[in-house]
Amino acid sequence: MRDQQWLVALAFVAPGAIALVLLRVVPAVDAFLDSLQRTSVLRQTTSWVGLQNYVDLLQDPGFRQTVKVTAIFSLIVNPIQILTALLIALLLHKVLPGGRVWRAFVFIPVAVPAAVSTIIWGIAFQPNGLINAFLDVIGIGRQPFLTSPQQAMWSVLVMLSWIGVGYWMIFLIAGLQDIPASYYEAAKVDGAGTWRTFVNITLPLLRRPLAFVLVADTVSNFLVFAPIQILTNGGPENTTRLVMFDIYNKAYQVGDVNLAQAEVVLLVLVMAAIVSVQFWLLNRRGVD
Amino acid sequence: MHTVKLRLRTAAAAIIAILFILPLLWVLTSSLNPGNDFLRYLSPLSVESFVPLRPNFANYANLVQGDFGRAILNSLWVCFVTVVVGLAICASTAFGLSALRFRGAGIVFGVVVLSFLIPFDAIAIPLANLFRDWGLQNTYTGLILPGIGNGFTIFLLRQFFLAIPRELVEAARVDGMGWWGVFTRIYLPLSRPALVGAGLTLFLFQWQAYMWPLLIGTEPAKQLAPIALANLQGQFTVDFGQIFAGSLVLTLVPMILMLRFQRHFTQSMTTTGLKD
User: Fold this and answer.
1) pTM of this prediction?
2) pLDDT reported for residue B270
3) Gyration radius of chain B over CA positions
4) Subcellular localization, per the record (chain B) (predicted)?
């Protein structure tokens, strides 16, 4: 009887468990093993080299540029997106005339697939595109955007925020609507102004959705790929060489799979660290 | 709220909302102008960039005749199979992990958490190398497989299943119902919102995928829509009208689903523990 129950349980969980092992765990392990080897295309041999690929990677100026670009990008894009999402959520969570429509308008870009928004914005950023047509109207000169080392990263940032902000806003609005109205009434009775109410009531009670949005946004911005591969190819002057594109480039353009796999392993370790924070946040129910 | 304050708030909300929707309005209008006509309305910028005064559907007709029509069908097929098979696999695993007590449950849950820790994109390149070794390149199976085992979906459904009262299960068992019956006649019907949310997650994963189809399917006959669109953009003479039309089609499908099921989607996300 007990054995039978065990077999039943196994039948239920096996397909999912096998799929996850094959599709997530095995490639991660494979990347790790590949990163400890070196394949010579010329002699068609593969040999174990220990951590040599990691040493090579850390000494590679291209990789250092990628780390620098990715770090700067993360430090700029995440605060901007979260702050914008929070401001819009604060504006839109209350009952307003036409409120549902405004909210839907901000949310709709979430539906646009990454490759599609990349292509749309790529056309909008062209010298004779939509953005420059706007700049003409308000009297600012035309800008190079994607072909300028100073502006390319900011252009990618605008494009990604157009999609991302509406998504994160939804979670923050849900959080804001959970704050009991009585808290605000009490603050009003105490004579607290808008800013003090925000700092003492809204922010602390919004801590959990904000933490979730911070982690999830950080992860998604680490994995940006389509805009770089389609529009900038990491350029101009390697100023948009984000980590996913660098790995893709190493594996398929340069053809150095072992080095690419070492970079995958480093990325997975960083991701796992960030996502474990997220997981801990999700799993912590009713602690406080 | 004070009337002046309310008006200011509404005006600010309207301006922000219009800024967000304007690019899509531009795409819609430009897709209804033949070929590269949209450029005319950009210098100088005119209302006709955002309002289609003389709608023309030639771009859509051309689009369907080209590779893109086939690519849309491929995308729909891949998404359909992913949602059906993926939901079955994820729901059954979640059921096993929430309703049944068995030795090794900890290990299986560990695998779910571990897979959750590794975002798919991060291991897409090593997985593509493995799929090449397994002969899954240029196959629908190769395109579909990564979408069906989703640790996050399993986790979401498990959280939902855990809230189903044990007494219900015990009563059904006493009445002689098998575990398959408990799964299909008690758990699944009670979890419709969670299943809709999970199905939408699986659908969007495939519909929006760009990197994976780029890595695994190079054969034109099995191309997915986002890749076909990117190829249109990369051609020597670019027909922007078709690109705008394709962009709109690729956006409308998930947009309709998301607006229709948004409540389920956010509900299933927030009930996982974001809220108490």
Assistant:
1) 0.89
2) 56
3) 23
4) Cell membrane
